[in-house]
Write a structure and sequence with these properties.
The protein contains seven helices and 15 strands. By secondary structure, the protein is α/β, with parallel strands linked by helices. It folds into two domains: 122 residues, Rossmann fold; 111 residues, OB fold (Dihydrolipoamide Acetyltransferase, E2P) (Beta Barrel), CATH 2.40.50.1020. β4, α4 and β5 form a beta-alpha-beta unit. It is elongated and about 65 Å long.
Length: 249
């Protein structure tokens, strides 16, 4: 799985240099954004959900890289600090950063940080092999009752019958299950999930993929689906016929 990286560095030459180093590092890595401020980074992070953020501490004009943690107190991405001053190291450690690089960043230290990142991501990669094994062990991959779904921390082995719906979260999704549990971040897009899941799951809207067995009522006037749990999910006008067809079998 390709690593997605975002760079937050206010000095253009350093920013460009780090971006080039990352592109030439030999890892399967994509720089999804290289920006000068936290404000610009928010758009990149929310849109692309990077796996790692290379974060300068001193962003100029009184702005600090640590301000990023005010926006993301419990970030789903790893943070590698890049700074010219080592006296920030203790504070960086308190924020549980993956690594701390001093400028100018050497190729050896960058490779070491990326190797640590890959090691941290191994559970996610391992779940893909587990999921493949589970799917191949079923007589029909589309008849699975349970599936290993990738998350930021590894994977969740989820009973499909307990899933109410998936909601789009940028290029990924939030999984909503029965029982009032908090939603779970899943490292698949709705398009990916459509291809993997059985026909009991139908795309009812560009932002929702719903389990038809959880649908209690279809409101054709308001274009909404009423679920057994009492929740409502949006449905597009053109998707309603497909939803009805899936329910009728």
């Amino acid at each position: 799985m390709k690593i997605k990286a975002c760079i937050i560095e206010d000095e253009p030459l350093i920013r460009q240099g780090l971006e080039k180093q990352l592109k030439d590092c030999g890892h399967d890595l994509e720089v999804v954004g290289a920006v000068a401020s936290i404000a610009e980074a928010l758009q990149i992070i929310n849109r692309y959900l990077p796996d790692v953020v290379f974060l300068d501490v001193d962003l100029g004009n009184g702005s600090s890289g640590f301000d990023l943690f005010e926006e993301y107190p419990n970030p789903r991405f790893e943070v590698i600090f890049v700074t010219g001053f080592d006296h920030h190291a203790v504070k960086a450690i308190r924020y549980s950063c993956l690594d701390y690089l001093l400028k100018p960043v050497s190729r050896r230290e960058l490779q070491s940080a990326l190797n640590r990142l890959k090691a941290r991501r191994q559970p996610v990669l391992g779940q893909e092999r587990l999921e493949l094994l589970i799917r191949q062990s079923a007589p029909d991959a589309r008849s699975l009752s349970k599936m290993a779904l990738p998350t930021r921390d590894g994977y969740v082995l989820q009973s499909l019958s307990l899933i109410e719906y998936f909601e789009s979260d940028g290029n990924y999704a939030q999984m909503h299950v029965l029982g009032g549990m908090p939603s779970t971040f899943v490292s698949y897009s709705l398009k990916d999930l459509e291809a993997l899941l059985p026909d009991t799951f139908v795309r009812c809207h560009r932002s929702f993929l719903v389990n038809v067995n959880q649908i209690k009522e279809i409101n054709k006037t308001a274009f909404r689906l009423h679920l057994e749990s009492g929740k409502w999910v949006a449905a597009s006008q053109r998707s309603l016929a497909d939803v009805i067809q899936r329910i009728q079998g």
